[in-house]
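Hi Y.,

Following your request, here is the sequence exactly as I used it, all 304 residues.
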Amino acid sequence: MLIGAIPIAAISIVGWSVLVLFLLALAFALGLTIASIKLRVEQDPRIDQVEQALPGANCGGCGMAGCAAFAKAVVLGKAPVTGCPVGGPSCGERIAAIMGVSFEMKVKTRPVLHCVAGSASRKLRAPYHGSLRCSEANLIPGVQGCAYGCLGLGDCIEVCKFGALRMEDGLPIFDYAKCTSCGACVTACPRGLIELIPFKNEQMLVVGCSSRDPGKVVRQVCDAGCLGCGACARKSDVFAANGNLACIDYEKYTDVDSLKEAFAKCPAKALVVFGPTGRIPVKDVYAKPSDTEADRTEEAATPA
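Below is the corresponding structure, written out as C-alpha cells. Let me know if you'd prefer a different format.
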C-alpha cells in the first residue's frame, strides 16, 4: 500500500531508525550524567570564598595566572594569604579569616628604578627612529651609549593597569599612591632596571645604576653612573661592590639617615632616594656636607 509515493515499509524503517538513535542519545546522556556525579571532585568551598575576597584585577602580581589560580593556591597551602599585592593588607586580613589563620603584616614592597640617567646625563646616544618599544630597541647594538641604562620608551608605562607610571626627563616616575606593586613593570623592562624592594621607611635609598662596566667606561657614556669605586661600602656594610656596581643589602638596611656618610663619599650621582611620590632629589634629604668636596674629588680622580 502506498501513501503518496512513499511505501509504508519505508516509513517504518525510518521511524525505527530515528527512535533507536534517540534512545542511544538518551542512554549516552544518562551515562554521562551519572559519571559526572560519581566522578565529580568536590571543590573546597574556601576557594570561591578567597576568590571573592580578591580585587579581581587578574594582574599576575601574585605570581599566578590570575585571581582564581591564586585562590586555589592559597587553599592548597601553596601561596601566602598576603600574596595579593593589589588587595593590600585589608585583602590579606579577609583571606586569613577565611583560612582561619593569623594575619601578619609584612613590609610593603615598591618598585624602584636602577637608573638615574635622565636625558641630560646620557652621552653618545645614537639617533633612533625605530619602533617605540624598549623590548625592540634593546635588540639594537649601540642604541645608546650605556648598554645598561633606561631606554626611556615606556614599555613599563604601557603595561601598568593602574596609571601609576609617567615619563619625565626620559625616565619613568612612580606614583606610589596608585601603585599596587603588581610587578608588571618589573617584567616589562627588557634591561631588568626595575626592582621591587621592601620599603622599611617612607624614604629608601637606592643605587640608581645598573652598569657593570668599569668606572672609566661609565664616565664616557653617563654623567650619573656608578663608578664601582667602593667608597660607599667602606663607609657602611649595608653597601657592597658587586661586579663594578654598588649594591644595597636591604636585610641590613635601617633608614636613610644611617647612610648619610656613605652618600657623602660617593663621587658619582648614582645614589637616589625614593619616597611616597617616587624619586625625590637627594638634596632634599641630605644637606650637602661642606667638608666632603675634597673627598668626592679624590674619589672621582681614581675610578675603578
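The chain has two domains: 47-99, 112-301.

Thanks again,
Q.
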